[in-house]
Fold these 3 entries.
Entry 1:
Amino acid sequence: MRPRRHSYGRGGRSAAAAVLLVLCLCVTGVFLLLLHGSSPPLEPEEGNKEAAASVRRREEALVVQAEVEEAPLPPGNARVAFLFIARNRLPLDLVWDAFFRGDHDGRFSIYVHSRPGFVLTRATTRSRFFYNRQVNNSVQVDWGEASMIEAERILLSHALKDPFNERFVFVSDSCVPLYNFNYTYDYIMSASTSFVDSFADNKQGRYNPRMDPIIPVENWRKGSQWAVLIKKHAEVVVYDDVVLPEFKKHCRRRPLPEFWRDWDKPIPAEAWKAHNCIPDEHYVQTLLAQSGLEEELTRRSVTHSAWDLSSSKDRERRGWHPVTYKVSDATPALVKSIKDIDNIYYETEYRREWCTSNEKPAPCFLFARKFTRGAGLKLLNSSFIAV
């Protein structure tokens, strides 16, 4: 019997051709891949060039951002943190708006402590710089109580979270800048010290002997709360757990008398004894003295307040608070008189502070208070203040 032949008809030849075609395609694909890997990339088509450029820019931006986050900041990028203590709204927001517009390099940040629940929006402020700049854990502040210290510490704790912040300026809601942003920034940043109004308080009635020995009387200081702190001193204030408890325990305000409201009656010679320690006038000064840091301070404030008004017949200008400047007070003569001050004398220490900036004679004050909204706007519109 003959062996049976296998017949390769048309169907068999087609299958063989298909296999051969697949093999050819595979070899061609491998060759092209090798060729592409060893050759420079082809130029994108005209329609895709913009998209490719956009991708490259995003990649470059990510690289630059990573480098900035890892590398130390150049000195010019250090920020001044402005810490506003306000009741509710900021009545002088337009004045500050003009001031902050003078910076084009992002050299400032803003934090506002207002009453709990208050939010800065288009409905509550006229300046975009203040939108949502309120802290979210504010406390109710009462004058002459330790709650003012708490507000300061809250503001500092928020500002210290930003590593770019190098100086911390406490600002009243009735305060105006006297110079433009660049001058103010250079003045503050050129000093390696904090500006803290601080002097020995040897009068009775403020220091509570029960604070001793935790706060000895030789470390007791008085001054304005409107300080400018370097980062080291800001951290000392935020992390203090020794001096603050003593203030809360022993530094309580007595009921304030109402005698000064009757302007036709003389103010008693020892009226200052009518109330006890005012924490915001003593805490930062005493804490830094207690910490052995007074050598690192310029012991004066850069914020001007007018206190010597005992002869005023305006009953609103008498008492425990500095004068409030009204529209009629906002004159070129007033601004010039403040700018012309170049030294401050501290009677209790027989010390005179000659004011300097960058080791050269300079005006003492960068800011002034207390101005009403109308007075501030008059200064701004009349260009009495340089912003």
Entry 2:
Amino acid sequence: MNNAEVPIKKTGMHNLFFIACDPKLKGTVMSGKTVWKNPDGYLPGRMAPLMTFYVYMAIAYLLLSAIWFSQYMRFWEDILQLQHCIAAVVGLGLFEMILWYLDYSNFNKTGMRPVVTTAWVVTVGAIKKTLSRLLILSVSMGYGVVRPTLGGLTSKVLLIGATYFVASELLDITEHVGTINDVSGRARLFLGLPDAFLDAFLILWIFTSLSKTLEQLQAKRISVKLDIYRKFSNALAVAVIASVAWITYEIYFKATDPFNERWQSAWIITAFWDILSFALLCVICYLWAPSQSSQRYAYSEDVGEEFDDEEAQSLTRGQSNGDVSLVKQEQKNGNAAISDEEDESEEDKRE
């Protein structure tokens, strides 16, 4: 067959069929290659919007990185181990978005998607997703704020992290590396089951640990940390509810659209998880931002309630100088009254 170019003037899902009507050609095997190109490049229609999306996500991560690392370097001497982990996740998030954009841009320009390049991008994404989940789990356990180490749980946390990385890597490689197939069908619906099971297990472990941490803070009456962890638990609950709702929608979307007829809106399925992950990371960065009192604040429960009250005033900045001076004046008056009572009692004893 001679090379043929078929111009397509209508937007939609198009299929190419080869039909042989001659009975003598029964059982004939054909081999060849078709090249599909959209007006804007080689990217399939369902993937093209993601290239622009990754540009915006890279800008968002760049702004978050600028804010976080400026504080990170400013209070370098008081940085906690937890804040080192947050910095790593922020940096990996920015790196991942840039790599995804470059991968899509190269694919759009050349029509080729090198396996090694895409596998590298997928691996960075899997590492970032794994570290994000381990970060949330560690925060829920009180690491770096309530407890200096994870103790005996370290090996279990590392084991679940390694297992999740393998499951996420296999899922993403199947999704992205190799031939791009617009007709994904229902088969890929089951590829995410191990990944989904591990996510569900992590969510259960996170909320169990968070509940214990809140009980511990409440028992010690550490009000500032308790307030921070309550805000974190509320944000996490909203994220989980949104995730469950979106998973339900995603299953319905894929099950009712086996031939990708709704290809123009399919990119939103992928984009949602990146947006949710970024939003939760912003919450963590806000609640555990570096400050000059990070080290003292992290282990304030070892000093007692007095330190917590002072730390609460310095962190929340809720007390003015006038209020502090009034408190000091009241303490002085109280001490003077106590000394007067002691003097009167001594005089009574002498009489």
Entry 3:
Amino acid sequence: MHILNFSPAHAIYTTPASPHKHRGPRKQRGMASPAGRSCTRYSKIPEFLVGPIGQPMPAVGLGTASHPFMEEEVRAAVLTALELGYRHIDTAALYASERVVGKAMAEAVQRGIVASREELFVTSKVWCTQCHPELVLPSLKESLQNLQMEYVDLYLIHWPMAVKPSKPHFPMKREDIVPMDLSGVWKAMEECHRLGIAKMIGVSNFTTKKLQELLAIAKISPAVNQVELNPTWQQKKLIEFCKDKSIQVVAYSPLGGQRIPKMNPVRQSDVLEEIGKARGKSVAQISLRWIYEQGASMVVKSLKRERLKENIEIFDWELSDEDRLKIDQIPQRKLITVQNLLCPEGISSVDISDVDVLEM
């Protein structure tokens, strides 16, 4: 296996940029606060200190899920994002984007865009078909081979659900769902951390109930819970729970998702549009700023340079109390559910109703 080395011979050594002047999220109990510095001279993206030792995690990252998967477009988006100052790249075994992410990062090194491996924050995830104690470590090793890296900064359980072993895919057959050995799977995640090939471990799409189950058996608490989060699905109960347990929330679909653009509740929000017009900001920027002010990180997906740039221009201004009150009153609607992952036909012998509990 060829490992992406980020050799110092190619490094561009810089002094840290001056902290970008902004008012970050109000510090609350148990919640990470911005580290108050930029990653490099290229970046103006603040970082959160996450996990038991406070490892820096950029407030905004690039998501690489694409359906259908478009390799060249994703490669170009990763390179463009890195040029603009993004340093967090989010991928997963399911996305089929790990190889292209690794190649794009190697190209970024060759072109001098990235100074060292330590400058990057890479997240990947283990899919439901590998959510078995004996398959977690092999799945991560395969992801590392695809990425051409020796470690990921964050490794997540993609969903709190297990499916009969197979290659990552969806939709999945309902009859293939099997009881999940959460304790065994998490012990395997902890082993990934112990081996140093996952600097931090966490979860995705976990409700407060699922987090309570995990915390009861975990020796290493999850550093992160990546969930659907935006002004039209605010997850207030979950955010407060995670703050109390020192779990960093990371928002996916922060702009309402892209699968059905004509039914996007964020981009079609009259409230967000009104606030944006009054402030000279886009609806996307209002949504992302609101998420940042909750103390949450986020991964945003875009293939367009102007959108990628716009998505990180949210740190030198803030919402007003009146803005926040209006956003608090937006009707709530969850778009991403476990049902989206399953074939409509068939019957599951495993009760997965607690995976999709709607917590307001």
